[in-house]
Design goal:
Elements (H helix, E strand, L loop, with lengths): L1 H7 L2 H35 L3 E5 L7 H4 L3 E5 L1 H19 L7 H23 L1 E8 L3 E17 L7 E6 L8 E3 L6 E8 L2 E4 L16 H5 L2 E4 L13 E8 L2 E9 L10 E4 L2 E27 L6 E12 L6 E6 L4 E3 L2 E9 L4 E8 L4 H30 L2
Antiparallel strand pairs: 1-2, 3-18, 4-5, 4-13, 6-7, 7-10, 8-9, 10-11, 12-13, 13-14, 14-15, 16-17, 17-18
Helix pairs in contact: 2-4, 4-5, 5-7
Length: 393
C-alpha cells in the first residue's frame, strides 16, 4: 500500500502526466481542423481515451490511412493529476506557517481540477433567439433534440410530453408518460436531407402513412453527421404511435418540420396530440423581452465593433422583474443562469443569447484567488527573509 501511494505521489508521474497533456493538446488541435471544436472537445478532452486518426485531407492519405495513435483523454489525465496532487500532500506535505503559501496554491489547483469536471458534467448550454419587441420563455440546444407530443386541450396551457432523442432506437418502444400512447421507432437518422429525391442520391422508401410525408410526398435522404459550428444536423425519424388497441399510424418527424408545415396530429378518440421532433428546449418561469438591439460597426466596414441588447426579464413573480443591458463580456446573471450576447440575425432585428447553467461557476474564481494569495504569501515570505538577511550583512 505504501509503495502504491508513493507511486501516485511521484514527481516523475507528474512530469509524465503533464507531458501527455501537451501531447493531447497537440493532437487535439490537429483534429480540430477536421472535426471542429465541439467534437474535438468531446473526443479528446471529455473522454478517458482518445484516438487520433491520420486526416483524409493530408498528403499520402492513401498510404497512411491506417495510422491511429491512441492516447489518454482529458478525463483520465485530469483524474490522475488530481490523484497525484492529493497523494503528494498525504505523503510529503506537513502543514506549517512556512508552507502556508504552497498549501493554498495546491488547494487552488485541486479546486480548479474539480471545477473543470463539474463544468463538463453539470453545465448546460443553449441559445435563446429573441426578436426586437418580442419575448421568449425558453432556450434550445442546437446539438440535442427531443420528440414531443403536445396536448393543447386546455385553453390556458399546453401539456408537453418529452422523449429524449437517445431513446429513439429502431425497433424499440417508449411509453409516453401520463398518456395512453406508446412510441415505436421505425428508423432514425442523426442527419438527413428532407425534400424530393435528388438525382444520384439514395432516398429512403417512406413507411409513413400519416402526416406531412403523405400529404406533401416528402422523402428522406440520409446524410453524414456534421460537426461544423455554424451547421445543425437535421435529426429525422419514422415513428409509429400505438394506442391501447393497436397502431394509430406512422409519421415522419424531423427538426426541420416546424411551423411552416401543417401540424401533424395524433388522434385517439376525443383526444389529440401534435407530434414534433425539435431542438431540445429548456423552459423558465420568466420571459426575456428584447426592448432594443444595438449593432455598431467599424466605420466604412461591416465588421462588428459592438452589439448589445437592452432586455426586460419578466418573472411569474413580478417582484423579480429586472431590466438589464447585455453586451460582449458583460452577461446577465439571473436565477442561476448566465445570458451572454452571442450573435444576431434577421437584419439586426433578432438578438441571440447564449444561455449557460453552470452550478460550479464560482469554483474557478475561488481557485484562482487561492493560488494568487498562495503565491503572494510564499514569495512574500521569501522576499522579507531576503530583506532581513540583507539588512544584517
Amino acid at each position: 500500500m505504501k509503495a502504491l501511494l508513493q507511486f501516485f505521489a511521484s514527481l516523475r508521474l507528474t512530469v509524465v502526466l503533464l507531458s501527455l497533456s501537451m501531447v493531447l493538446i497537440f493532437f487535439g488541435t490537429l483534429a480540430q481542423v477536421e472535426t471542429g471544436i465541439w467534437k474535438t472537445q468531446k473526443d479528446y478532452f471529455e473522454s478517458a481515451l482518445a484516438v487520433w486518426a491520420y486526416p483524409e485531407a493530408w498528403i499520402a492519405y492513401d498510404k497512411l490511412y491506417w495510422l491511429r495513435i491512441p492516447m489518454p483523454g482529458g478525463y483520465l489525465l485530469g483524474g490522475m493529476l488530481l490523484v497525484n496532487l492529493i497523494a503528494a500532500h498525504v505523503t510529503r506535505f506537513t502543514l506549517s506557517a512556512k508552507k502556508a503559501g504552497i498549501f493554498l496554491i495546491h488547494i487552488g489547483l485541486i479546486l480548479l481540477l474539480i471545477s473543470e469536471l463539474l463544468t463538463d458534467v453539470l453545465s448546460e448550454e443553449s441559445q435563446m433567439p429573441v426578436d426586437e419587441g418580442s419575448s421568449s420563455n425558453y432556450s434550445q440546444e442546437y446539438r440535442n433534440n427531443e420528440l414531443v407530443l403536445i396536448d393543447r386541450a386546455d385553453p390556458d396551457f399546453d401539456t408537453v410530453h418529452s422523449i429524449p432523442i437517445a431513446l429513439l432506437k429502431p425497433g424499440k418502444t417508449v411509453l409516453v408518460p401520463d398518456s395512453p400512447l406508446t412510441i415505436r421507432t421505425i428508423s432514425y437518422y442523426p442527419n438527413a436531407q428532407i425534400g424530393r429525391a435528388k438525382e444520384g442520391s439514395a432516398p429512403v422508401d417512406s413507411p409513413a402513412n400519416q402526416g406531412v410525408s403523405v400529404k406533401m410526398n416528402v422523402v428522406v435522404t440520409p446524410a453524414a453527421v456534421t460537426y461544423a459550428e455554424n451547421e445543425i444536423n437535421t435529426a429525422t425519424a419514422y415513428v409509429e404511435v400505438l394506442g391501447p388497441e393497436g397502431s394509430l399510424g406512422i409519421w415522419l418527424v424531423s427538426n426541420v418540420i416546424d411551423d411552416r408545415f401543417p401540424p401533424q396530429m395524433v388522434t385517439l378518440g376525443e383526444q389529440s396530440w401534435e407530434i414534433v421532433l425539435r431542438l431540445k428546449r429548456h423552459y423558465y418561469p420568466f420571459a426575456v423581452e428584447l426592448l432594443d438591439f444595438s449593432h455598431e460597426k467599424y466605420p466604412g466596414t461591416e465588421i462588428p465593433f459592438n452589439y448589445s441588447s437592452e432586455v426586460m426579464v419578466r418573472h411569474n413573480d413580478t417582484t423579480k422583474n429586472q431590466k438589464a443591458l447585455i453586451y460582449m463580456n458583460h452577461p446577465l446573471r439571473y436565477e442561476g443562469l448566465t445570458f451572454y450576447q452571442a450573435s444576431f440575425a434577421n437584419d439586426d432585428r433578432t438578438s441571440i443569447f447564449q444561455v449557460v447553467r453552470n452550478p460550479g461557476w464560482i469554483l474557478p474564481y475561488v481557485s484562482v484567488l487561492l493560488m494568487g494569495v498562495g503565491m503572494l504569501v510564499q514569495f512574500g515570505m521569501h522576499f522579507f527573509k531576503f530583506l532581513k538577511k540583507r539588512a544584517t550583512t
